[in-house]
Amino acid sequence: MRRKDKNGVTHLFVEEYADREDTRIPWTEFSRLWRKTTSSRPPGIKSTREMPAELLEQLRTAWPK
Fold it and tell me: What is the 3-state secondary structure (H, E, C) of 14-32?
């Protein structure tokens, strides 16, 4: 994991992988996926909270292929 702080925002890069350009989605699409996947409050662009492992797995399963 790599951390980058810039302009009051912390970015956490969990992993880098060869097909990251093919599997990335815009923020609006991620927010839509979040609302479809869970009933918890969606993160904001400047969110700093940790997501539970169960939620990460739900998102991974629903992530567009």
Answer: CCCCCCHHHHCCCHHHHHH
CA atoms within 13 A on the CB side of 8: 2
Helix (H) or strand (E) holding 59: helix 53-62
The two structure tokens encoding residue 53: 């492992």
Q: CA-based Rg of the chain, rounded to a whole angstrom? A: 13
pTM: 0.54
17-59 pLDDT, tens digit each: 777 777 777 888 888 888 888 877 778 777 777 777 888 888 8
Closest by Cα among 52, 15, 17, 19 to 37: 52
- CA dist 65 and 40 (Å) reads 24
